[in-house]
Write a structure and sequence with these properties.
This protein is of the alpha/beta class. It is built from nine helices and eight strands. The chain has helices at about 15-20, 25-40, 55-60, 70-95, 105-110, 115-130, 150-160, 215-225, 240-245; strands at about 10-15, 45-50, 100-105, 130-135, 165-170, 190-195, 230-235, 255. The protein has an eight-stranded mixed beta sheet with strand order 3-4-2-1-5-7-8-6, sandwiched between helices. It starts with 7 loop residues before the first strand and ends with a strand. The relative contact order is 0.18.
Length: about 260
């Protein structure tokens, strides 16, 4: 069970949540995200969305079936996809009478003290204005020296910067299992993790040919969040409405409890 006095929530959605297996945009899922997050904000919560999907969305739009490996091509796809993604978010959140803002980050925005403070100030001001920040890594300019690497880690870093009360990672499975549920039909969901080091062996790689994350990156995110005193939950992105269950104190997915 999470803290019922929480106010500030960071929610991360991955490419597998935002797109179909065909690579095309899952419009119903994006609408669910806009509807639920808008409702939470209307009820008094402060919500930040960390969204992957720029490259995946561009792949679908431009007809790519396999993620390219060339950096220049990936950066160009990110530029196309980010525009498309934010257009959709702006349209759908607007239908629920909420305003969104785009924040694109690189590692230097976090690692350099002055830039980190400016980043934090921007988040705080947007939240005070009742605006929902939508965050992604600035993949169009990020190279090895300045990239954060994956949006699971990015979401945990953002949660740490803004002193969030909870981090929610939507994945393509229900949470962390004691073995790979795609290979073992008897795999059991781990509802609560007390010691992250004991479950690292259960982590797997990315589940789709479009996304970049997997349980390995989610466990790393949990380490970042928990070290900052922030609890983290992994749950299934097919059911965005489970956010309501979370704020009502019900058990959902896998909880990495911070102490």
């Amino acid at each position: 069970m999470v803290n019922q006095n929480m106010k500030r929530i960071v929610v991360k959605v991955g490419t597998s949540t935002l797109t179909y297996d065909t690579g095309k945009i899952n419009l119903r899922r994006i609408n669910d995200i806009a509807r639920v997050l808008s409702d939470l904000r209307n009820s008094g919560y402060e919500v930040i969305l960390v969204s992957s999907g720029a490259i995946g969305v561009a792949m679908g739009k431009l007809g790519y079936t396999k993620k390219p490996t060339d950096t220049k091509v990936k950066q160009s796809l990110a530029a196309v996809g980010q525009c498309e993604l934010m257009t959709l978010y702006d349209k759908m959140f607007s239908e629920y009478h909420n305003t969104v803002a785009q924040i694109l980050l690189t590692r230097s925005d976090i690692d350099v003290t002055k830039r980190r403070q400016h980043t934090k100030d921007t988040f705080e001001t947007l939240l005070e204005m009742g605006i929902i920040p939508i965050v992604n890594e600035n993949d169009t300019v990020s190279v090895e020296e300045i990239e954060i690497g994956d949006n699971d880690s990015l979401s945990a870093i953002v949660a740490k910067v803004v002193n969030a009360d909870l981090l929610v990672l939507f994945s393509d499975i229900d949470g962390l299992y004691d073995s790979d549920p795609r290979k073992n039909p008897y795999a059991s969901l781990i509802s609560r993790v007390e010691n992250i080091n004991t479950v690292e062996k259960n982590a797997g790689g990315a589940g789709s040919n479009i996304g970049t994350g997997g349980m390995v990156t989610k466990i790393e995110a949990a380490k970042i969040a928990n070290s900052a005193g922030i609890s983290m939950i992994i749950t299934n992105g097919e059911r965005i409405d489970t956010l309501y269950d979370l704020i009502e104190g019900k058990k959902v997915g896998t909880l990495f409890k911070a102490y």
